[in-house]
């Protein structure tokens, strides 16, 4: 028997994944990666003229070169949603930032799922504290939620 850690443990990072009621069929659909300190951030983004609200917000935020968290929801892409989708992205990432005790600009939002409906931000806002409470070194719940 060795003291070797499983390969999914990343020192300085914690992970969470929970059900927040975003997916119509239920199941884990809200995930978070949080860094214990500032992390160098970089990104590659689509050049498509049509970009989802989370892509736009993450692209703007990553320009600072630093992040503390990546917030991911599945079941709703929040794409082709205009200003309401942008508001939902900003509101949900701000709620998670508050629960983490970091500036909203340090949370990079990501969404995947159905195109067209606006992200139900209230589901993320109401689950922000429970999501943060679930943070731990094991990334399995994060992987299941995305």
Give a brief rundown of this model.
By secondary structure, the chain is of the alpha+beta class. The chain has helices spanning 53-62, 82-100, 121-133, 140-145, and strands at 13-18, 30-40, 66-76, 107-114.
How would you characterize this protein structure?
The protein is α+β, with helices and mostly antiparallel strands. The chain is about 35% helix and about 25% strand. It contains four helices and four strands, in the order ββαβαβαα. Strand 3, helix 2 and strand 4 (about 105-115) form a beta-alpha-beta unit. The longest helix is centred in the middle third of the chain and has 19 residues, at about 80-100.
Main β sheet profile: 4 strands, mixed
The end-to-end span amounts to: 32 Å
Strand order of the largest sheet: 1-2-3-4
> Quick one: how many beta strands?
4
Order of helices and strands: EEHEHEHH
Overall 3D geometry? Answer: globular
SSE topology:
Blueprint lengths: L12 E6 L11 E11 L12 H10 L3 E11 L5 H19 L6 E8 L6 H13 L6 H6 L1
Parallel strand pairs: 3-4
Antiparallel strand pairs: 1-2, 2-3
